[in-house]
Specification:
211 residues; mainly alpha; Arc Repressor Mutant, subunit A; Tetracycline Repressor, domain 2; 2 domains; 11 helices; 75% helix; elongated
């Protein structure tokens, strides 16, 4: 819960009972968000799921948008931590190994947070602040990926290298995002591990051709 206590979208709790209440609010809000979607859930729904008065929720959050933003920031911060842990400080044997590891890590996180990702990555979300959190998270992920992959692409001039890295990331990540959104019946039928393998194959095929 530390990430929520430090979140810019949360009024920081100072007492242990307030921290416990915050944890209940986040758990209840996540449950309602997955069940009802971004536009349909209310503070009353969250209060009911958390087993707390509505007033207790307003002590920690300005409103439901702040709750969604806090959940989104925490979710993508955790994804970034997983990607960073699996890509940084490791000696990969090849560019293919980097791509495969990225796809596997993203698939694991997506499977563990399938309901939340379906809502947070939805095309229906128009909030500029929420979109900003998602885009900022993506930029950080691409940066981590670039650091791990660049050493294998030194034969490419820098502008071309950056383009190839960005495109290979997009090819691998877009399939995982599409399955998270639930908007492609073909991908929905695949298991997350099978999808990670197919996404890595597609990204690696592009890398091999681009080089």
């Amino acid at each position: 819960m530390d990430s929520y206590e430090l979140s810019p979208f949360v009024r920081r709790p100072l007492q242990e009972r307030s921290r416990i209440a915050l944890a209940r609010i986040i758990a209840g809000a996540s449950e309602v968000l997955v069940r009802e979607g971004h536009d349909s859930f209310s503070m009353a729904d969250i209060a009911a799921a958390a087993g707390l008065p509505v007033g207790n929720i307003y002590r920690r959050f300005k409103g439901k948008d702040s709750i969604v933003q806090a959940i989104s920031l925490d979710t993508f911060t955790r994804l970034e931590a997983i990607i960073r842990d699996r890509l940084q400080g490791h000696r990969f044997a090849s560019a293919s190994a980097v791509v495969t590891e990225l796809a596997a890590a993203m698939a694991v996180m997506s499977e563990q947070n399938e309901g939340l990702f379906r809502v947070l990555l939805s095309y229906q979300i128009t909030s500029a602040d929420l979109r900003g959190i998602v885009l900022a998270g993506r930029r950080r992920l691409v940066s981590i990926y670039k650091d791990a992959l660049s050493g294998f692409l030194q034969d490419l001039p820098e502008p071309r290298r950056d383009l190839v890295i960005g495109m290979s990331y997009q090819i691998g990540a877009s399939a995982i995002v599409s399955k998270s959104r639930g908007d492609d019946p073909t991908l929905i039928e695949l298991s997350w591990s099978d999808l990670a393998q197919e996404a890595a194959k597609a990204a690696n095929a592009y890398l091999n051709d681009a080089r």
